């Protein structure tokens, strides 16, 4: 009878809490504090602190469960100055310190030589270098190939220039990583990027690339493997993270 009463009381308390949560409508589902956002990935109502924690914890679990790094490794972060690479650099530097990964982190940026496009983003990368306390290496098309992207476009025209730039950029990252003598290169490709790539490969009928584009680590048979710690991270959450 006492147990029955306690169960009834517990149910009453739970129902009361649920009703209060419904009335309030904005309570964090993890700590019952005031919610600041609805998480895109799970639709959970979360306060800022809990969102930061689950966002960072999930990336930590991805790194650990996939064995992305080994203590003592030199790791270059492909830094473009955009949201993905900027958040990746911050989170990876924070996790490296918090969880004692023992990694030696570097920022690696590519200057394509595109007037009015790369200048501002390189300024962001230089700010990141100071804010995160990470060494920065900038490699340029001019130094590597003898041409800037503007000069290449002036010669070949605008048709297919994005294709050329993409190939040159991937090679530049590889060469920059080699100059830094790193063991791994990490990029900010997120779940949305990977989904788009999968869809494009299906539409093109390029089945051979499907497994490669969905792998969290690629180029393992090459000198410097590439990793994608944001493989399961939604783009919306990457956007939300620095603004909360």
UniProtKB/TrEMBL annotation:
<dbReference type="GO" id="GO:0005524">
    <property type="term" value="F:ATP binding"/>
</dbReference>
<keyword id="KW-0547">Nucleotide-binding</keyword>
<feature type="binding site">
    <location>
        <position position="193"/>
    </location>
    <ligand>
        <name>ATP</name>
    </ligand>
</feature>
<dbReference type="GO" id="GO:0005739">
    <property type="term" value="C:mitochondrion"/>
</dbReference>
<dbReference type="Pfam" id="PF01171">
    <property type="entry name" value="ATP_bind_3"/>
</dbReference>
<dbReference type="InterPro" id="IPR011063">
    <property type="entry name" value="TilS/TtcA_N"/>
</dbReference>
<feature type="binding site">
    <location>
        <position position="110"/>
    </location>
    <ligand>
        <name>ATP</name>
    </ligand>
</feature>
<feature type="domain" description="tRNA(Ile)-lysidine/2-thiocytidine synthase N-terminal">
    <location>
        <begin position="75"/>
        <end position="231"/>
    </location>
</feature>
<dbReference type="GO" id="GO:0016740">
    <property type="term" value="F:transferase activity"/>
</dbReference>
<feature type="binding site">
    <location>
        <position position="84"/>
    </location>
    <ligand>
        <name>ATP</name>
    </ligand>
</feature>
<protein>
    <recommendedName>
        <fullName>tRNA(Ile)-lysidine/2-thiocytidine synthase N-terminal domain-containing protein</fullName>
    </recommendedName>
</protein>
<dbReference type="InterPro" id="IPR056369">
    <property type="entry name" value="CTU1-like_ATP-bd"/>
</dbReference>
<dbReference type="GO" id="GO:0002144">
    <property type="term" value="C:cytosolic tRNA wobble base thiouridylase complex"/>
</dbReference>
<keyword id="KW-0808">Transferase</keyword>
<dbReference type="InterPro" id="IPR035107">
    <property type="entry name" value="tRNA_thiolation_TtcA_Ctu1"/>
</dbReference>
<dbReference type="GO" id="GO:0000049">
    <property type="term" value="F:tRNA binding"/>
</dbReference>
<dbReference type="GO" id="GO:0002143">
    <property type="term" value="P:tRNA wobble position uridine thiolation"/>
</dbReference>
<keyword id="KW-0067">ATP-binding</keyword>
<feature type="binding site">
    <location>
        <position position="188"/>
    </location>
    <ligand>
        <name>ATP</name>
    </ligand>
</feature>
<dbReference type="InterPro" id="IPR014729">
    <property type="entry name" value="Rossmann-like_a/b/a_fold"/>
</dbReference>
<feature type="binding site">
    <location>
        <begin position="78"/>
        <end position="80"/>
    </location>
    <ligand>
        <name>ATP</name>
    </ligand>
</feature>
């Amino acid at each position: 009878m006492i147990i029955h009463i306690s169960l009834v009381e517990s149910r009453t308390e739970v129902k009361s809490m649920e009703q209060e949560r419904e009335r309030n409508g904005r309570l964090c589902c993890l700590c019952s504090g005031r919610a600041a956002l609805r998480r895109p990935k799970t639709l959970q109502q979360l306060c800022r602190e809990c969102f930061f924690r689950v966002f960072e914890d999930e990336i930590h679990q991805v790194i650990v469960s996939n064995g992305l790094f080994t203590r003592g490794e030199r790791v270059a972060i492909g830094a473009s100055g955009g949201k993905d690479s900027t958040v990746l650099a911050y989170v990876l530097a924070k996790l490296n310190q918090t969880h004692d990964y023992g990694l030696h982190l570097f920022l690696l940026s590519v200057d394509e030589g595109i007037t009015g496009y790369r200048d501002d983003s390189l300024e962001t990368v230089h700010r990141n270098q100071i804010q995160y306390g990470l060494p920065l290496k900038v490699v340029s098309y001019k130094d590597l190939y003898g041409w800037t992207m503007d000069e290449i476009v002036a010669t070949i025209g605008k048709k297919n220039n994005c294709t050329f730039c993409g190939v040159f950029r991937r090679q530049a990252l590889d060469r920059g990583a080699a100059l830094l003598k790193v063991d791994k290169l990490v990029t900010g490709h997120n779940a949305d990027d990977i989904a788009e790539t999968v869809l494009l490969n299906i539409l093109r009928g390029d089945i051979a690339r499907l497994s490669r584009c969905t792998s969290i680590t690629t180029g393992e048979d090459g000198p410097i493997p590439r990793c994608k710690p944001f493989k399961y991270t939604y783009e919306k959450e990457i956007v939300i993270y620095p603004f909360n």
